[in-house]
Design goal:
The structure is a single chain. By secondary structure, the chain is mainly alpha-helical. It has one domain: DksA, coiled-coil domain (Four Helix Bundle (Hemerythrin (Met), subunit A), Up-down Bundle). The chain is built from five helices and no strands. Zinc ion binds next to helix 5.
C-alpha cells in the first residue's frame, strides 16, 4: 500500500472510531440501571425499560468489541503491517480495507476464521 492509500485507510479508520465513540456514549446512557421511580420511566413499563436496557447492553458489548478491533488496526499504522493479512501476510485489497478499515484478514482468511468460530 502506498502512502496515499494508507492515508485513505487511516481517514476511514478515524471516521469509524468516532462513529463508535458516539454510539458507545449513547448506548452507555441507554444501558444505565433502570430507575424504580415510575415518574422517570413515564408510560414505559418497567419490563420494557429492562428490555431496552438489555438490548443497549448487548449493542454496547458489540461496539466495544469493534472498538477493540479499531484500536488494534490503529496500532498497526506506521509499523508497516497495516493492510496485510494477519494469517497469510498477503496484502488485503484496498476496497476491502476502505470498506472495513479494521480488517485483520484478507477475504479468503476471513471466511476461514468465521467458519472456525
Ligand atoms: Zn489472508
Amino acid at each position: 500500500m502506498d502512502s496515499e492509500q494508507l492515508q485513505y485507510c487511516q481517514t476511514a479508520l478515524t471516521a469509524l472510531k468516532q462513529e463508535l465513540e458516539l454510539e458507545i456514549a449513547d448506548l452507555e446512557l441507554s444501558a444505565r440501571p433502570v430507575q424504580l421511580d415510575q415518574q422517570a420511566v413515564g408510560r414505559v413499563s418497567r419490563g420494557d425499560a429492562l428490555q431496552q436496557q438489555n438490548m443497549a447492553l448487548a449493542n454496547l458489548e458489540q461496539c466495544r468489541i469493534r472498538m477493540h478491533e479499531v484500536l488494534h488496526a490503529e496500532s498497526k499504522f506506521g509499523v508497516t503491517e497495516y493492510g496485510y493479512c494477519e494469517a497469510c501476510d498477503e496484502v488485503i485489497s484496498l476496497p476491502r480495507m476502505l470498506a472495513r478499515p479494521d480488517s485483520r484478514y484478507c477475504l479468503g482468511c476471513q471466511s476461514v476464521v468465521e467458519e472456525a468460530d
